[in-house]
Specification:
The structure holds two protein chains of two kinds.
Chain A lengths: L1 H10 L8 H5 L13 H11 L1 H18 L1 H4 L31 H37 L1 H16 L2 H9 L6 H10 L3 H14 L3 H8 L4 H37 L11 H12 L8 H25 L7
Helix pairs in contact in A: 3-14, 4-6, 4-14, 6-7, 6-9, 6-10, 6-12, 6-13, 7-10, 10-12, 12-13, 12-14, 13-14
Chain B lengths: L1 H29 L4 H5 L5 H11 L5 H13 L5 E2 L4 E2 H36 L4 H14 L3 H15 L14 H6 L1 H31 L2 H8 L4 H13 L1 H9 L1 H15 L4 H11 L2 H29 L7
Antiparallel strand pairs in B: 1-2
Classes of the chains: A mainly alpha, B mainly alpha.
Chain lengths: 316, 316
């Protein structure tokens, strides 16, 4: 309440960025060609990047392929069929069948659902924890910040794969468990990024303005600091998804996959090891291609977003 | 300088104690006592109780942790009840081979990545630069074991140049060293994974340096391209690699684990993997802590080395 009544007189005479007035008042030091909100500019920059658009297209394709595909291409993925194991590709089974007689194309769709879901949920968990943790540490500062960030240092020093594998000996059977163990140990980088961003943001005038206007801590964090730090977080999310899908592949390869008959690309690729020497290439390369394509798409999008949000790199 | 190192060492010791505490706590939650591994899953409660009492597993968590910490100080990592050996003896037996694999891969990746990055920067935006970037990007998005599978298919099964897995007769570090053909594929796979990220940094570092005045001066003096690159650019452009190598220890350890499992190469990674399957928690705990310590040491050594190598960096 307090900040609403007092905000009007304070803001009088100021033109917010992106309003029509800002277009006419060029700042000292040069002409401004185009002024829009940071988000608009970033979107334009992003769409100009051809690789990024390809990345988005690939990602959309795989989401449709995995989640809508099974509705069109119906296969049996529940009951093994010993009569049709490891058949090479044919018209009945475009990518052949696996060692249990499952249709491989349908299997890739099913494995993709879990891989994409785990990648998404793990990065969501990591981002939410990391953003809140980093924002709180950066805002409180002092001894509490020191203690919170030392904990991050310690956790970052423990090799990610080791600790996740150790937990996976007990918890890796369901999508939820895998998302949780991957998410629980990948929030450290977003926490560091958000804290760094908050540290520079909190000395800015608009934060002082919120404080002077009597805004609560909660309002400051959720309405002002986190939205302003969001660009860093969004860039990180795409890399998080890529890393989570890769980590999932490592878990699957080392034998800590989802409970049968559920599967993920990681588990399928893990099984692939034994088929290379038997010559069952259709059980190895199609699923590997899908996994690499999705991870690459996420990395491309992340790179493009980072360039788009980075003002210093603009107008290269 | 010495003050700086001492200060960093003190912080590192605190971080290492934190690593030990968190790893210990996590593993304690998973398995408070190895008693069932020793006496069997159907052991009588009375026998369990007396075994725990005898081996100190009946005491409080904190007391157990401080005992463990005390043993760690004497390089006593506990006892593997599955393999009936002390963990430190197992480490001593396997560390040499793992170190050889990792160091050989690290050196090979630097030997490839440094010239590649410089060449890419010199011939930037050429077809070769784009091709190298594309290959690096693909490798970067690829699970290391999948790259290994492709290389096995190509060089072992199709071309018969290298063996697909490391022979069981390789049991000592010296044998690993004297049988380069056996170790070729694991080393190449591990190296290529690192080349992907190293050459990316090397390219951007070389690009930064190529725009500097000292390069223009060297050219103005009439030095040949070779002399400019070898004598002036190389040293300066390599500085970020010192930090990068120091920070890549967790990646190297994880890669080491996956490659050792894929090629069945007896080292610390394979020991860890087998311990995962056997739920041999003393080995898991010890290797996790060792990984954390190596990570901290890597960071520390990189920071010290960079201040020695680069006089522009001053320490307070």
């Amino acid at each position: 309440m307090a900040d609403q009544t007092s905000s009007k007189p304070l803001l009088e005479g100021l033109t917010p960025l992106g309003s029509p007035d800002a277009l006419t008042t060029a700042p000292e030091g040069g002409e401004v060609g185009f002024v829009a909100s940071g988000w608009r500019l970033a979107l334009r920059e992003f769409l100009d990047n051809r690789l990024a658009v390809i990345g988005v297209a690939v990602l959309i394709f795989f989401v449709l392929f995995c989640f809508v595909g099974p509705l069109i291409y119906k296969t049996n993925q529940n009951f093994t069929n010993p009569l049709i194991t490891t058949l090479p590709p044919s018209s009945a089974h475009p990518l052949g069948t696996d060692e249990n007689g499952f249709d491989e194309l349908g299997r890739i769709m099913k494995g993709g659902q879990t891989a994409l879901a785990i990648g998404f949920f793990a990065s969501l968990i990591a981002t939410v924890i990391g953003t809140l943790y980093g924002a709180i540490a950066g805002l409180l500062g002092g001894l509490i910040d020191g203690a919170l960030m030392r904990l991050v240092d310690i956790l970052l020093s423990i090799p990610f794969l080791f600790i996740v594998l150790v937990l996976a000996t007990k918890y890796s059977a369901t999508v939820l468990e895998e998302s949780l163990i991957l998410g629980a140990f990948s929030w450290l980088v977003p926490a560091r990024l958000v804290r760094g961003e908050v540290l520079t943001l909190r000395t800015r005038d608009f934060v002082s303005a919120v404080v002077v206007m009597g805004g609560t801590q909660r309002r400051l964090v959720f309405r002002h600091l986190i939205p302003n730090a969001l660009s860093v977080v969004i860039v990180n999310v795409t890399f998080q998804i890529a890393d989570a899908i890769l980590a999932l592949a490592y878990l699957g390869f080392l034998g800590f996959g989802l409970q049968y008959p559920n599967t993920s690309w990681g588990d399928m690729l893990g099984n692939a090891q034994q088929y290379v020497s038997s010559g069952y290439w259709w059980l190895v390369y199609p699923v590997g291609f899908c996994l690499v394509a999705v991870v690459m798409a996420c990395n491309l999008i992340g790179d493009a977003l980072r360039d788009a949000f980075d003002v210093r790199l603009q107008r290269r | 300088m010495i003050g700086y190192i001492i200060r960093r060492l003190l912080v590192a010791i605190i971080v290492v104690i934190g690593i030990a505490a968190i790893s210990f706590a996590l593993l304690y939650l998973l398995s408070p006592s190895p008693v069932y591994a020793v006496l069997g899953a159907k052991a009588q409660p009375a026998a369990v109780k007396s075994w725990n009492l005898q081996h100190g597993y009946d005491r409080g968590e904190l007391a157990q942790f401080f005992t463990y910490l005390g043993h760690l100080l004497h390089l006593d990592f506990g006892y593997s009840y599955k393999l009936s050996q002390s963990v430190s003896a197992l480490f001593k037996e396997n560390a040499g081979r793992s170190a050889y694999l990792t160091l050989a891969a690290l050196i090979l990746s630097l030997v490839i990545a440094i010239p590649l990055g410089i060449a890419q920067a010199v011939k930037r935006n050429s077809i070769g630069d784009y091709a190298a970037t594309a290959v690096n990007f693909t490798l970067y998005s690829m699970p290391s074991f999948f790259l290994g599978l492709i290389l096995i298919q190509l060089f072992a099964l199709d071309l018969h140049i290298f063996p697909p897995t490391v022979s069981d007769s390789i049991t000592t570090t010296w044998q690993a060293f004297t049988h380069p053909l056996q170790l070729a594929l694991p080393i190449i796979t591990l190296a290529l994974i690192n080349v992907a990220s190293f050459s990316r940094y090397m390219r951007s570092s070389a690009l930064d340096n190529l725009g500097q005045d000292y390069i223009r001066l060297a050219r103005a003096k009439g030095l040949s391209q070779r002399a400019v690159l070898m004598r002036h650019l190389l040293r300066n452009a390599c500085l970020p690699m010192i930090t990068l190598v120091g920070l890549s220890i967790p990646t190297l350890l994880a890669g080491n684990l996956l490659i050792e499992v894929l090629f069945n190469f007896p080292g610390l990674g394979l020991l860890f993997y087998n311990a995962l399957g056997n739920e041999d928690y003393n080995i898991l705990l010890a290797y996790t802590i060792l990984g954390g310590v190596l990570t901290v040491l890597g960071n520390l050594m990189a920071d010290v080395a960079i201040t020695v190598a680069d006089p522009r960096i001053r320490v307070g």
